[in-house]
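User: Continuing from earlier, I have the next pair ready.

Assistant: Great, send them over.

User: Here they are, in order.

Assistant: Folding the first of the pair now:
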Amino acid sequence: MKDILLVEDDPDIQTQMKWGLSKEFNVLQALNRPDAMQLFMKNQPPVVILDLGLPPDENGTGEGFSCLNEMLKKAPATKVIVLTGNQERENALRAVQLGAYDYYLKPADMTELRVIIKRAFHFSEIEAENRRLRMMLDRKAGFAGMIGQCPAMQKIFETIEKVASTDVAVLIRGESGTGKELVARAIHEKSLRNRGPFIPINCGAIPGNLLESELFGYEKGAFTGAYARQTGKFEYADKGTLFLDEIGEMPAALQVKILRFLQEKKIQRVGGAKDIEIDTRIITATNADLEHAMKSDRFREDLFFRISVISIDIPPLRERGNDIVLLTNIFLERYNEMFRKRIRGLSRSALNAIKRHSWPGNVRELENKLQKAVITADADIIEPCHLGLAEQQEMDMSRERPGKRYEGVMLREARKRFEMDIIESALERHSGNVKRASEELGISRPTLYDLIEKYRISVKKN
């Protein structure tokens, strides 16, 4: 049976109405606003019958209107049917203007009231289905700035929806260029904190001795050169979200201070002695193996469990199937418009090259290559050479037995070996120059360094 909340301060009328409705609905009963709100928050009934004539509170405010406003603020889709006396029709119309679904004048005819209630449930179900379908369509086209139709990305979108409305700690994991900050921003934008600031900071890009001041701020005279008080990222993120990217690069001393904040919601500026209460949500991200870092005492175990209540693992682009083609078309359209070009698409060989490429730099690498291709293409069709993938294609074709190195291995291991081959070849061609190799591969130097460390590739400089 469907839940319906009945808020009526007259016990006799309440009993009579429950008797008339209980055969078709599960009737939840409340005599006053506090009890009504408690039942409303616990059960989230789609339909409410509310007596506008509830007794006023100690300040003389009408409890009926207060209850209506509070319910619609908590759950705007709720269908609230207000009951009022025949002499108070103006109040009923005012309630409808404030968002009530309908009104009914006392004394209630249960047959007519049941018709109104059934219609309210019908509209509630239609609206819920429309929201569900709209969400599905949005996810197919994109989700909070992210694009992805593969099952892994759809699961990430569902997880974002679930965790956004809470303040639970989220750890986002994935290779460089997979879109960890986009996921963090999506969680913020869909949360109750979305009117507050979203403050990102890359823990690996700032030296450890400066990172503390960046995060926590400092007092005047805290150190040489501290001529005035400086506000830190924590304070800027108050009432919003602080995104700590590359949390695995954070020095051990700072890990202790982050842990203290997560436990007490308080910080101290550098050189300060006063605790400052901060209301901010922490979202973290890393491309490092934190479990390995914990074993080697480079990352605190207690902090890891604090920041990873929910863990979101973003798959690398090479594991996202047809998302590569989808993203390619979106980037092509974006840069056609940006650079006022009229490129119609990619040749078959260019599409094949894109599908074959291992994309060590992930989505960021793909976007960079498409941007470059749109700028440099001298025809209306993009070829592999415009993408910087022609050399790879020739290398694949020139091998006597292209699959020999990969025979008898699982696909994941084959991809790993292929990626190592490409990186080693690029480094060899550029005599160990990481900067030039990264430019050829279309990825950043930090990303290439990460991959060199990940695969333990020896860089030989001639």
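And the other member of the pair:
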Amino acid sequence: MKILITGGTVFASRYTAEYFVRKGHEVFVLNRGSRPQPEGVTHICADRHSLGDTLKKYRFDAVLDVTSYNENDVRTLHEALGEFGSYIFVSSSAVYPETLPQPFREDMECGPNSIWGAYGVNKLAAERFLRENVPQTYIVRPPYLCGPMNNLHREAFVFECAEQDKPFYVPKDGSLPLQFFHIGDLCRFMEKLLEKQPNERIFNVGYPEPVSVLEWVELCYAVLGKKPELRFVSGDIPQRSYFPFYDYAYVLDTARQQSIMPDITPLPEVLA
């Protein structure tokens, strides 16, 4: 297939570009050229908000929009595209209000989330535009992404503490659940959507079961063959000042994803 991927230079979009190149597809990446490009791609150097007729000459079998954050992002890209097939938009679990019963399901009414604020509201506005204007859109809602190329200081922070034999500070009793999804599995799932073209249009993705903070830290230390010396933090110390996740527990129902792609890379393997 001829596939357009937005971004292509950092974490999720770069991994996605390299993944589909390895799978033998003709991959185009759209970015401003401020960073090195993945090997094997065709680089379309442009600002996505000032595209003009740059994309009109291309016919893409699929558009994988990994880097849109708001309605304007998707609107300007859609207006600039020529002929294309499926459109996959990587949204977020932040579109679910924290007041909804959990686990969050795709058929629940979305809205503002006080933890994620404008980020979730803007992702939801982008979803709405695509659902109203691009009928061939698939919307994917991941939890925390993990895996190679992650540019967010999450697993890396724990690995560094383990490498330096530092104790690790965990919030409260360490029971806070965290739900992850491997960036490689996200790419495999997008590939499945393109292959199977399911009738459902919105998919939560992620490991079916979350892990607790304690479990996650222990798994990270175990990658280096170590066990953490744990320190439990309570009181008024802001959690984000010592731990890389917000004090927010949520779980996505991933049954739709599992019906299409039941095999998922084990989390310990991803961390390793």
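Worth noting for the second one:
Residues 118-133 form the longest helix (16 residues). The mean pLDDT is 97.
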